[in-house]
From TrEMBL:
Keywords: Cytoplasm, NAD, Transferase. InterPro entries: DHS-like_NAD/FAD-binding_dom (IPR029035), NAD-dep_sirtuin_deacylases (IPR050134), Sirtuin (IPR003000), Sirtuin_cat_small_dom_sf (IPR026591), Sirtuin_class_III (IPR027546), Ssirtuin_cat_dom (IPR026590). Its EC number is 2.3.1.286. NAD(+) binds at residues 9-28, 86-89, 170-172, 214. GO terms for molecular function: histone deacetylase activity, NAD-dependent; NAD+ binding; protein-malonyllysine demalonylase activity; protein-succinyllysine desuccinylase activity. This is NAD-dependent protein deacylase. Pfam families: SIR2 (PF02146). NAD-dependent lysine deacetylase and desuccinylase that specifically removes acetyl and succinyl groups on target proteins. Modulates the activities of several proteins which are inactive in their acylated form. The active site is at 104 (proton acceptor). GO terms for cellular component: cytoplasm. It comes from Larkinella arboricola.
Length: 234
């Protein structure tokens, strides 16, 4: 099976009703990013940070995958699909995608402040002060905050290097290091960019822009790839 790698960003989640800080002039649900999404914010006001992510988690519980998420799932019988997402929600998993790498962490998980290797699922939507890991330290959101390293970056690079087809959807391609993943794609493989606002990507002969939302653009692209795969297999 050909290997399809998908780089997904906030645009695909926005179509399911989940907003990001980029939607409102640097504010995320009326909060400044530096007040809720940095290590300094956690030290300064952990109660605010916990409450902020509790509310994001509560909102995400009700969010459902859209046609874009489902289109990626529909590729799996025909391709080896891996999704590398900048999103912290679980909409790709809700849609049934089997292989998802979360570059920026996962909203429905917590981790130890003493040992970052200790990661736990969050039951429901609330993470509270006094919720401790097995070593006795406070649990924090399992999110890669601004200013922190991206632990899954090496795995993402390796996956992109193996791609036969690369799909980029719902990302402005300006947030690094994630935006640099395109540069690890092998020369000559087809790259499809699905976004109503065409991101600023260096021109390539094999680059195809689909200036549509994920819900329509991915659905159409999935149909094309499946049809082409069937023809190749004849």
């Amino acid at each position: 099976m050909k290997k399809v790698v998908v780089l997904s960003g906030a645009g695909i989640s926005a179509e399911s009703g989940l907003r990001t800080f980029r939607d409102s002039n640097g504010l995320w649900e009326n909060y400044k990013v530096e007040d809720v999404a940095t290590p300094e914010a956690w030290v300064r006001n952990p109660d605010l940070v916990l409450e902020f992510y509790n509310q994001r988690r509560k909102q995400a519980l009700d969010a459902q995958p859209n046609a874009g998420h489902r289109a990626l799932k529909q590729l799996e019988p025909y391709f080896d699909v891996t999704i590398v997402t900048q999103n912290v929600d679980n909409l790709h998993e809700k849609a049934g995608s089997a292989k998802v790498i979360h570059l920026h962490g996962e909203l429905f998980k917590s981790r130890s402040t003493r040992d970052p290797r200790l990661v736990y699922d969050i039951a429901g939507w609330e993470l509270k002060k006094g919720d401790h890991c097995e070593k006795g330290s406070q649990l924090r959101p399992h999110i890669v905050w601004f200013g922190e390293a991206v632990p899954m970056m090496d795995s993402a690079v390796e996956i992109v290097q193996q791609a036969d087809i690369l799909i980029i959807v719902g990302t402005s391609m300006v947030v690094y290091p994630a935006a640099g993943l395109i540069d690890f794609a092998r020369p000559g493989i087809p790259i499809y960019v699905v976004d109503p606002n065409v991101p600023d990507i260096r021109p390539r002969k094999n680059l195809t822009f689909i200036p549509e939302p994920a819900t329509t653009g991915l659905s159409r692209l999935a149909e094309q790839l499946i049809a082409a795969n069937a023809t190749d297999g004849v």
